[in-house]
Write a structure and sequence with these properties.
With 156 residues, the protein is mostly helical. The chain has one domain. It is 74% helix and 0% strand. The longest helix is centred in the first third of the chain and has 30 residues. It comes from Amycolatopsis camponoti.
């Protein structure tokens, strides 16, 4: 019995999480470009600041790509990205007083969480075969069984 590929929800979540990741990458580059033209100030290292944004954006993009490609390891980072986006939306909605930005950003993160926690996504992440219960998957080895099947070994 073959395992099903990643459900549509997971791949869509990968595309959705790529949007804030790309925005963060662009922001990091903009910070770097703006910092190159301004005089150095004590305690302000534009290279570290922009480098941090760029490295985090690349890590987020790796997770987004993993979801699009159907890699199970990318689901947890995808959830973290969505939670960060929801937190950003909450901050913009409340303390920052920018509901025009906060509401759509928060809804974007919530939509990603919904995609990653829908039943097909959850079953895929747990390594369930079609029609299989969680108990049956646990007896078979769950994700360990899934890895063995990918390598061509059968654990039954």
């Amino acid at each position: 019995m073959k395992l099903s590929p990643a459900p549509r929800e997971v791949r869509l979540a990968g595309v959705v999480t790529a949007v804030p990741s790309l925005a963060l990458l662009v922001f990091g580059v903009v910070v770097l470009v703006n910092g190159l033209g301004s005089p150095a100030q004590p305690g302000n290292n534009v290279y570290v600041e922009s480098g941090t944004f760029i490295v985090v954006a690349l890590a987020f993009l790796a997770a987004s790509g993993g979801l699009v490609l159907g890699q199970t390891w990318a689901r947890s980072p995808g959830v973290v990205i969505a939670l960060i986006v929801v937190g950003l939306g909450w901050y913009l909605l409340g303390p920052s007083g920018e509901p025009a930005w906060g509401v759509p950003i928060a809804l974007f993160g919530i939509a990603t969480l919904v995609l990653l926690f829908r039943a097909p996504s959850r079953a895929w992440a747990l390594g369930l075969r079609e029609g299989e219960t969680e108990t049956e998957a646990a007896e078979r080895g769950g994700l360990a069984g899934r890895r063995a099947e990918r390598e061509g070994h059968e654990e039954d």
